[in-house]
Amino acid sequence: MTLSAPGPSRNLPQYGALIAVLLANWLLFPDFFAIRLQDGRLFGSLIDVLNRGAPVALLAIGMTMVIATRGVDLSVGAVMAISGAIAATMTGAGWSLPAVLAASLAAGLLCGLWNGLLVAVLRIQPIIATLILMVAGRGIAQLVTEGQIVTFTSPALAFIGSGSFLTVPMPVVLTIVALAVTALLVRATALGLMIEAVGVNRLSSAGAGVNTPVVLVAVYVWCGLCAAVAGLIVTADIRGADANNAGLWLELDAILAVVVGGTSLLGGRFGLVLSVVGALIIQAMNTGILLSGFKPEFNLIVKAGVLLVVLLLQSPTLTLFLPRPKGARPIGTVKPPVAPTSGGAKP
Amino acid sequence: MSRKWVISAATAAAALFIGLGGVQAADKKLVVGFSQIGSESGWRAAETKTAKAEADKRGIDLKISDAQQKQENQIKAVRSFVAQGVDAIFIAPVVATGWDSVLKEAKEAKIPVVLLDRQIETKDPSLYMTAVTSDTVHEGRVAGEWLAKQTGGKCAVVELQGTVGSSPAINRKKGFDEIVAKNPGMKIIRTQSGDFTRAKGKEVMESFIKAENGGKGICAVYAHNDDMAVGAIQAIKEAGLKPGKDILVVSIDGVPDIFKAMSEGEANATVELTPNMAGPAYDALIAFKKDGKAPPKWIQTESALFTPDTAKAEYERRKDAY
Amino acid sequence: MTASTAPPSAPLLAIRGLSKAFLGVQALDGVDFTLRHGEIHALLGENGAGKSTLIKTLTGVYQRDGGTVALEGREIAPRGVEEAQRLHIGTVYQEVNLLPNLSVAENLFLGRQPMRWGLVDRGAMRRRARAVLQPYGLSIDVTAPLGRFSVATQQIIAIARAVDMSAKVLILDEPTASLDAQEVAVLFKVMRTLRSRGIGIVFVTHFLDQVYEVCDSITVLRNGRLVGERRTAELPRLDLVAMMLGRELEAAAHRIDLGPAEVDSRPPLASFKGFGKARSVEPFDLDIRPGEVVALAGLLGSGRTETVRLVFGMDRADRGEATVDGRTIRLKGPRDAVRLGFGFCPEDRKKEGIVGELSVRENIILALQARQGWLKPIPRRRQEEIADRFIRLLDIRTPDAERPIQLLSGGNQQKALLARWLATEPRLLILDEPTRGIDVGAHAEIIRLIERLCADGMALLVVSSELEEIVAYSRRVVVLRDRRHVAELRGGEVSVERIVAAIASETPHAIASETPATGSGAEVRQ
């Protein structure tokens, strides 16, 4: 099991696209790779890509696993708004940072639990099940903020958005931590295998004794948690919770990041790192367009064009033309076969 | 928040009490029905709140109906106001078209209609008495004129546009561009959409700063709304520059947070889009009822410019209206 | 034959030499079929016989490769379901293919609504809908959505629609598969009424009792060929089953003498009492002892698969009791079964067995890993050991353990699934058609494996259509017919002839009456 999809050449389109977009940015704007320290924090366009890409990267981490189970979570943008609204409102009311973080994360967890139960227990199609919270969630966030942009001055909460750890901006730090924890959770346990098995064939997996409802609930809960962290970052960044706009349409960027990262919407094999790369490709384009000075009217067209190219590079028809070394392991290289230990399998 | 509720409940109760007394004393008290779009933004909520306050001030009985962003609800509300025989109907129309038949019903019942905040499209302008709206092109002009005056007509401006294609974004850009054209020393060096949001405003401003030599080439940022300006201020600070000094900040709307920023010296000017649309409408209505004098077809609200010297007081005055 | 020369005595439908191949596989090979006016004609056959291909060729879903189809002497070649309808051929499937959210009346007149002034005349539609349904004894609210009615009612509505569209040939494809006894009776009444009106009905079913109850003639297909056409009255059940299973009875497999029928007194590993599920399989008793192979025999649709799915918890029994080692257990799902040491290789490997995109290794360790729980991952090294061991042991032909299992042949997929369960060292292994769709070599290997496992003391419950196979490895055979366990053969009683005879037996309640819990689904539902 690997962190990303098997076979190094399979990852070529993603890394290639990221490098290409970064190089294009550099051509448009020669100072693109220039980095300096500003108030003890790394400062530069490349850092902007990482920093601004953090929320979508976080969403993509959670979304990857949901999509691997052949699901989708449309509610992550709304969950971001809820988590941010709770954080800003509670901070404004004088709660301490740990309480604020706990409440926001708990809200994300509850949202994920709700989605997971609808999908796993009531067996509602994921796109519909999460659409409910996508619509209602923003309303909940507006109820929390009473329809206003709730601002706060607490430097503790703001630190999550604009602080830094060893000169690295906090959003980037949090994303790396989330990626590491998630990777550990799925790859150091058998959860990753079960997620993939459920995504490929839910019936077969259930027949093999896999606890499919628990696996499904778990991925939606994790996705909700990732969204809550993303919501905290966005809120902390602007020092205010904007229930109308926080995370708006980011669920689509997150899905796109996962797909660009090469995880199939039909479920199965997933690559967490590649999804984060997908999110960075998207953000590198956004930043590049802003730096380029193109008219804003062109933004979406340029973005669509580049994405089309990345997705084409991954299309099964086109990959036939790419070299594909086998990452496979011939039988017998590990150990001579041992005699079956007991009962079941004796010849 | 709960304290605010208690206060407003108390004022409402007091108003009701005074109002009842008023009915007994004065035989003729104006009754106005107001079909409001909803409460999708802070500004909208402030408009509603101000309409109530201004009505109380004039002893007008105001009935508000919240349409929740739906025209059919507004049409229903207008019909019900007609049936109740109110003295005037105010509409903040959610869309521009489709009003003719219901306005005809109001006209037949001889009830004057006033449009608030937005215009409608109709072939028969006699269907409404007047429209009270701001002039968004003019807002852009006011902002531009202030900046031209402030910098002696020499300034490299970066512009944070509103949502691409929205009418305030188009008009606020148009008004500002007119002033830039008149001042050869003024130039818009970068312009991008910040979608009217803080987060986008901050992100776009970050890239502007990097693209313009760490912000050294930027004289001022012009934001189509205050929220984007608040985001831009944070970006400027995080780049190690002083907003309001190293880079001037001018924006439009006049929400409380920009006054707060101005009072802290981080923003330089805002052009107010007043939430008081109902006030001028009441005055026009009272004049009409008194001597039958029809108001002009368009009452343009003032696009007042505010600067840091009054910011603190304005912030205190506004923070409860929003 | 052309329309002008059609003799008045021409049969309603005459199919001659019909052939159809898919990707080189001959699904129909020179099949004849004749349907007369006013006849109910059973079309029978086991898996792969070619029934559904024949029906789909008739209704225009497929185009035939060769042969002729004549309706009342006139040759036809419908290119779609609608054209078939225009040619007076109506079809009703088990899963009614109408629109459940439209009203009954709208469904009846879909695509041919009565119009007035360019609009649908709803009043006329309702009146005509009531008139159309009246002969079927259905006085229902025709404005209610179709989906609100039972499957049986929906089927009658679908039949009424087909007949009202002037169907002369009515094809009923397994209409009774999900009906209870009472509903079947109602349906048969309708079918008899239509027969008396001269309509010819093609009736596809797996229930032999129903064939003998309502059909005039029987046509049997096997492996895409015509086995024969008989009058029902002249065809004993035994002969019919022999035709379907494809054996000449006198030449039936050599009988192996396994000694006298003995009663095994050892305590059973697993025991099921009055276990059953409404509309799936009648309550049955079943004991399985360690080291024995219990085989389930019967025709397609007789309840074999349903039985093993209940035993493994894939479907939930709604009556009866299950015990393992004498303790009552609950079987809420496969997870419970896996925890008890059961394993199950399903009939539909692709849909319910393999996890296609995952590697052979991952497929093999999946059940073991699921039983251990996600928190205790099997180390990669150990996974590879297990996979390699079974790849060698079962001779799974794959270049390496990392190949996605979907790229393997059917036989090797089946062996990998066996490996999945063997890795869990199960106490009871359930195999549903373990040798179906597998090449000859793998076939023999799997049978040898079954024998070996049995000798090692594992209990096996095997469903198979291959009677010789069953006789070879099983000393206890439970025979099913029409969703009922009808006989149990032990030791020396086990022979192909006995099994066939039991399948064909005409005393449906002989065995079932011994179990007090027996009752038809209909009775329980009431």
Automatic annotation (TrEMBL), chain A:
What CDD domains does the entry give?
TM_PBP1_transp_AraH_like (cd06579)
What is the superkingdom listed in this entry's lineage?
Bacteria
Q: Name one GO cellular component term.
A: plasma membrane
Q: Name one GO molecular function term.
A: transmembrane transporter activity
Lipoprotein: present as a keyword of the record? Answer: no
| Annotated keywords | Cell membrane, Membrane, Transmembrane, Transmembrane helix
Q: Coiled-coil ranges per the record?
A: none
Please tell me whether the keyword Cell membrane is annotated for this protein. Answer: yes
Q: How does it sit in the membrane?
A: Multi-pass membrane protein
Chain ranges passing through the membrane: 12-29, 49-67, 101-122, 214-234, 246-266, 273-294, 300-322
Write down what this protein is called.
ABC transporter permease
TrEMBL record, chain B:
Fetch the InterPro entries from UniProt.
Peripla_BP_I, SBP_2_dom, YtfQ_transport
Domain of life, per lineage: Bacteria
Indicate where this protein resides in the cell.
Answer: Cell envelope
Gene Ontology terms: cellular component:
cell envelope
Q: Indicate the segments forming the Periplasmic binding protein domain, all copies.
A: 32-277
Family classification:
Belongs to the bacterial solute-binding protein 2 family.
Please identify the protein, giving its name as recorded: ABC transporter substrate-binding protein
Q: Which organism is it from?
A: Azospirillum lipoferum
UniProtKB/TrEMBL annotation, chain C:
Coiled coil ranges (UniProt) are none
- What does the record give under GO molecular function? ATP binding; ATP hydrolysis activity
Q: Which residues form the ABC transporter domain?
A: 13-248, 253-507
- Subcellular localization: Cell membrane
Q: Gene3D superfamilies, from UniProt? A: P-loop containing nucleotide triphosphate hydrolases
PANTHER family recorded for this chain? Answer: CARBOHYDRATE TRANSPORT ATP-BINDING PROTEIN MG119-RELATED (PTHR43790), GALACTOFURANOSE TRANSPORTER ATP-BINDING PROTEIN YTFR (PTHR43790:SF9)
Its record classes its membrane topology as: Peripheral membrane protein
**Record CDD domains:** ABC_Carb_Monos_I, ABC_Carb_Monos_II
Which keywords does the record carry? ATP-binding, Cell membrane, Membrane, Nucleotide-binding, Repeat, Sugar transport, Translocase, Transport
Protein known as = Sugar ABC transporter ATP-binding protein
